[in-house]
Amino acid sequence: MATISLKDLVKNYGKVEVLHHVEGEFQDGEFIVIVGPSGCGKSTLLRMVAGLETVTSGEIYIGDKMVNQLEPADRDIAMVFQNYALYPHMSVRENMAYGLKLRKFSKDDIERRVNEAATILEIQDYLDRKPRQLSGGQRQRVAMGRAIVRDPQVFLFDEPLSNLDAKLRVQMRLEIKKLQRKLGVTSIYVTHDQVEAMTLGDRLMVLNAGYVEQFGTPIDLYEKPASVFVAGFIGSPSMNFLPAKLTNSHIELENGHKIPTSSAQQGDAIFGVRPEHMVVDDNGPIEVKTELCEQLGANTLVHGRLNKCETSVVASIQGHWDYEPGSILRFNVTPENHHLFDSKTEKRLES
Amino acid sequence: MVEHRPILNIVTHLVLILGILIVALPIWITFVAATHDEARMLQAPLPLLPGPYFIENFKKTLFGSGLSGTETAPVWRMLMNSLFMAIMIAVGKIAISLLSAFAIVYFKFPFRMGFFWLIFITLMLPVEVRILPTYEVVADLGMLNSYWGLSIPLIASATATFMFRQVFLTIPDEMLESARIDGAKPMRFFFDILLPLSRTNIAALFVILFIYGWNQYLWPLLITTETDMTTIVMSIKQMLEAAEQSPQWNIIMMTALLAMIPPVFVVIGMQKMFVKGLTETDK
User: Fold this and answer.
1) ipTM rounded to 2 decimals
2) Residue in B closest to A70 by C-alpha
3) Within 13 A of B43's CA, how many CA atoms are on the CB side?
4) Which chain B residues are closer than 8 Å to A146 by Cβ?
5) Reported CATH class of domain B34-281
6) For an interface test with A, which of B174, B176, B178 has the most A Cβ atoms less than 10 Å from its Cβ?
7) Contact at CB, B178 and A85, closer than 8 angstroms
8) Considering only alpha carbons, which residue of chain A is nearest residue B173?
9) Which residues have a Cβ under 8 Å from the Cβ of B28 and sit 6 or more positions away?
10) From A89, A102, A103, residue closest to B196, measured CB to CB
11) Domain residue ranges in chain B
12) At what angle do helices B173-182 and A92-102 cross, to 10 degrees?
């Protein structure tokens, strides 16, 4: 178990810089999720911590040791890969024991550790099978088993659930979380799935095109997104963004309707509202011309456009509703659920 | 195609049987010739049914000094020579091309692709093309009339290197990364992961290369002058020309028959892995 710190990390491929001065301090035992769209550099960052990619500049510390130059094997880490990377010619037992064998553990010790890990993951029954005789979920467990037998200081997960079907993914997600709590090992988990990120992470690092957009707890990210990107990425369906003008304590929408605000800012802005915070109110300031209703059972998604404008708006309202296309609905949003962003930098405007 | 038409069935079988007959006839004649005595084989027409002298011919060929009136080594000796040569060539080729493919795929060093193409170019330089300089080198190293001289000049193989390169490229990168995290050094990774994963390909290649080595004719002919080192394939040809007398077909054919046996065993014994190695893509 150890802390991890990333100091001014930069990664170049040839002349192209793909990670820009990433900073991060991860606490001992913390579950960190790195999340972002594909190509944002999240896997690269993870592989740099693992030692599979070189560091262009900056420093990585595991515990208080600088590990930039260390081989992956000497960093005391374990990694779970997206395609599991089990050795196909070895049995589950041999797969799990391989790392221990190379580290010259005694036979009894290996036996004991493998059995312990197998018990935790409930894979005792197929220790002697080959990986190809296992289902996707079982392989996933074996891959985790291979990571935990070594009792490393850090777990690294590279999108470990993306090859599983939806139901299994939810189940394994819970198990990973439980396992990590139980073992208390500092973990870094990479995913592009925001639900996975929100449910698993103690803290989330949102990456976009090689920049850290925001680093904080899931609730922080949800309630106070630092930028339009984070606001749009976290939450489903994603936040509505309405172009607006700020004038003496009012938000003026495109169609001229005004919403009172406590913000003292002036000028062009982006007004963000989450669909689940839109409340139907006949006197509300947000006028929406409906286009389509999606009934999901517990709630209904109303898709439409801001009246007399092109900006599309989604509202999520409780219960079953079915509005005729073209009907006008009015919504209100309580001030604590207002999000204001600068229209140029797309950063959050604090009141 | 799944069709059930009786006439079609009969026709397909006829075609197959005809094909087998055409392929098998020369082998049958070889066998028949090996079961008659010398005199019968010189009369026309050639016999088509086996005669009574099989055991006698067998003993004479395998343990005698071969043809009467010449000084050739006994055939068992030639069989051993051929076997040693073929195994040394097959094993040597596989070992060297595995290592070169490993270097080319998994290590980054200057002129990597240059080396790859250099190896590839040797495809255009089989022994027959470079026979004089190769002979010179082997002679200078004092390897004439030795197993080393028979096998080493034939060991480098561009085809096998290329094949193993392709095999290694299909093994996912994560396998290497995972082994690195587990603490495997390069040669560990090679022996523990790469070798077992290319096992079937090695078997397939072994079959092909064993037969290639077994069938070598020109090179052994040049390099061996002592009768003790002759190989079976080259000596069959020599037997035909040996001695100023009519060829002793019964002995020659028995030798040919014996020469066929080891490759047949290798093919039959490794057939399953051979097919797997050439068709399997799942890693």
Assistant:
1) 0.82
2) B181
3) 7
4) 182
5) mainly alpha
6) B178
7) yes
8) A85
9) none
10) A89
11) 34-281
12) 50
Q: State residue B133 phi and psi, 5-degree precision.
A: -60, -40
CB atoms within 10 A of CB B263: 17
Q: Flag if B181 and A103 touch (Cβ within 8 Å).
A: no
| Domains of chain A in sequence order | 4-232 (3.40.50.300), 237-342 (2.40.50.140)
Distance CA B171, CA B193 (A): 10
Mapped to the 3 state alphabet, what secondary structure does chain A carry?
Answer: CCCEEEEEEEEEECCEEEEEEEEEEECCCCEEEEECCCCCCHHHHHHHHHCCCCCCEEEEEECCEECCCCCHHHHCEEEECCCCCCCCCCCHHHHHHHHHHHCCCCHHHHHHHHHHHHHHHCCHHHCCCCHHHCCHHHHHHHHHHHHHCCCCCEEEEECCCCCCCHHHHHHHHHHHHHHHHHHCCEEEEEECCHHHHHHHCCEEEEEECCEEEEEECHHHHHHCCCEHHHHHHCCCCCCEEEEEEEECCEEEECCCCEEECCCCCCEEEEEEECHHHCEECCCCCEEEEEEEEEECCCEEEEEEEECCCCCEEEEEEECCCCCCCCCEEEEECCHHHCEEEECCCCEECCC
Single-letter amino acid, residue B283: K
How far is A346 from B88, CA to CA, in rounded Å? 71
- What span, in angstroms and rounded, lies between the C-alpha atoms of B181 and A76? 9
Angle formed by the axes of helices B232-241 and B75-106, nearest 10°: 140
pLDDT value for B247: 74
CA distance B205 to B163: 9
SS3 content of chain B, % helix, strand, coil (to 5): 70, 0, 30
Tens-digit pLDDT profile for residues B25-36: 999 988 998 888
Tokens of B253: 């054919």
Q: State whether A73 and B175 contact (CB < 8 Å).
A: no
CA distance A249 to chain B (A): 56
Report pLDDT digits (tens) over B76-87: 888 999 999 999
Q: Which residue of B has its CA nearest to A156?
A: B181
Instruction: Kindly state the tokens that stand for A19.
Output: 């990670």
Residue A76 contacts residue A50 (beta carbons within 8 Å): no
Length of chain B: 283
Q: Is A276 left (phi over 0), alpha (psi -120 to 50) or beta?
A: alpha
The contacts of residue A200 (CB under 8 Å, 6+ apart) are A31, A33, A173, A176, A177, A189, A191
What residue ranges of chain B have pLDDT lower than 70? Answer: 1-3, 65-72, 242-245, 280-283
Instruction: Report CB contact under 8 Å: B178, A89.
Output: no
